[in-house]
Amino acid sequence: MDLSAFEHLRLELRRGCLVLAVLAELRSERHGYALVKALREGGLEIDENTLYPLLRRLETQKLLASAWRVEDKRNKRFYRLSPEGRAVLAWLLEEWRTLNDAIETVSEAQVTARRRKV
Amino acid sequence: MKRELTNQELLDRYVHAVRMMLMLPPGKVDDIAAEVRSNLESHIDDRATALGRELRPDEVSAMLKQHGHPAKVAMQYREQPGRSLISPVLFPLYWFTLRAVLAVWVTIRVIVAVFTLQGSSPAGTILLAFGRDLLLAAVIIPGGVTLLFAVWEYLEIRFRYSERWRPEALAPVPSHVPQPAKPRPMVQIIGGIVWLVFLALTLLQSQFFWVWGARGVFIPSDALYAMRVPLWLLAFFWIAHSWLDYTRFAAARWRKILRTGIVTAAIALAIFLVSTGDLLIAGPNWNATQARSLATLNQMLAGVLVLGCIVAGLALLRTFIRIVRRSSNHPRTPHLAS
Asked: Scanning A32, A42, B85, B255, which has its CA 20 to 30 A from the CA of B202?
């Protein structure tokens, strides 16, 4: 099996899921590093250099809002979901469920067909 | 002895390096730099809390190294992180052009070197000049082609001209679409007949060659004149092969065998003619002041023959590789006439 091809496909698959996970996590306000930790604890390992610029892009798209605030004597930038982001997240989650069901159906149909042949 | 940097100094240097590489408006640079610093400080604090002590400078250094090179961090923050000098859309065409230009240049330079070797200059000097030109070309040609495509890429980003198209403006489909294999044999047949008539005239009328050049200033060499019959036969077989290709009368395998034989014979004949020296010599109306032009003409003729041999040799090699691949992939598949 070509592992590099698998790795490439895996990264592609994760890229789309990552936005969804970030939006879902930011239903409650967090700063960048806290978000990294939350995602890791949830099982989503992420490169920080990918996440922080992604947050800025989502903010540019008005899906997130941010504000600088002091916490533990440190100046930190906190992100949270904007009202537009909340609506988009709901649509994306709906899309995610539809896709998930479709994948399940397709893969299940393949397995059933193979069993019938056997 | 060199002083060890403190944690703060390491962090300051890292953030400063990111700032320098962001290449964004000053307001954005300050904001991003502050965020990078804030995230790294949170990371350091978190690690320190886990260890129950302050981090040592070597640990902070290792953490920054793990975070990534400042250039890589800065690149992720740019407005167009995917912006490349030549986009994946243009890249196949760029790669093809680069290879084609290099191949043409190398072929021409090899031919020039071969002919220069026949002159009075020492071989070492010629080889040195060849090596120098090769090195220069290895820099100039990729640079020039890359620049050309980078400009194309820039214009595409700037004006989006590839998006300014309408399906209605596309060329209509011709009423008669020729089969892809048909035009080439027909061109070969016409070319072959022209060549055959020309050579037939030399067979029937030996003085025909005297009309070559302006008022017969040059005539073919003895070797070229002696080879007129094999040349005529080659042209004849080439037409026959092209006709078989056009009509597909014979199986593809036999057509390939015939073509391989003709091309091999043509290469052998060309090598023989080039090795005999000049293909054209002074004619009855020869003028000594035209010596340079005759030499140039001879070099051009020989160059064309050498180039033809290289192209034909590569085509033969490709045919051979295809046959080997096909036989190894489908050892039991019977050959079908196409």
From this structure: B255
B68 touches chain A (CB under 8 A): yes
Which residue among A33, A72, A77 places its CB closest to the CB of B43?
Answer: A33
For residues B21-26, give the mean pLDDT. 82
How deeply is B131 buried, as exposed, middle or buried, from its count of CB atoms within 10 A (0-12, 13-18, 19+)?
Answer: exposed
3-state helix, strand, coil in chain B (%, to 5): 75, 0, 25
**Which residue in the set A52, A56, A68 is minimally distant from B39, CB to CB?**
A52
pLDDT tens-digit map of B117-176: 666 667 777 778 888 888 888 899 999 999 999 998 888 877 777 677 677 776 666 666
Provide the chain B residues 285-314 that lie in CB contact (below 8 A) with chain A.
none
Q: Can you name the residues that pair with A77 across neighbouring β-strands?
A: A68
Longest CA span, chain A: 67
Residue A108: Cβ within 10 Å count: 10
Handedness of CA B159, B165, B169, B172 (dihedral sign): positive
**How far, in Å, CA of A90 to CA of A93, rounded?**
5
Numbered residues of chain A with Cβ closer than 8 Å to any chain B Cβ = 31-34, 37, 48-50, 52-53, 56, 68, 72, 74-77
Q: What is the largest CA-CA distance in chain B?
A: 105
Q: Which is more confident, B336 or B190?
A: B190
- pLDDT at residue A99 tops 80: yes
What pLDDT is stored for residue B212 in this prediction?
56
* Residue closest to B162 by CA, chosen among B153, B171, B173: B153
Rounded to the nearest integer, the mean pLDDT of chain A is 88
pLDDT in tens, A4-38: 788 888 888 888 888 999 999 999 999 999 999 99
* Cα angle B32-B36-B42, degrees, rounded to a multiple of 5: 140
Contact B34 A53 (CB under 8 A): no
- Determine the residue among B38, B46, B72, B78 to mutate to test chain A binding: the one whose Cβ has the most chain A Cβ atoms within 10 Å: B38
Task: Output Rg (C-alpha) for chain A, integer angstroms.
Answer: 18
The predicted structure's pLDDT at residue A59: 93
ipTM entry: 0.78
User: Which two tokens mark A19?
Assistant: 């936005």
Share of chain A above pLDDT 90, in %: 50
Interface residue B35 vs chain A (CB under 8 A): yes
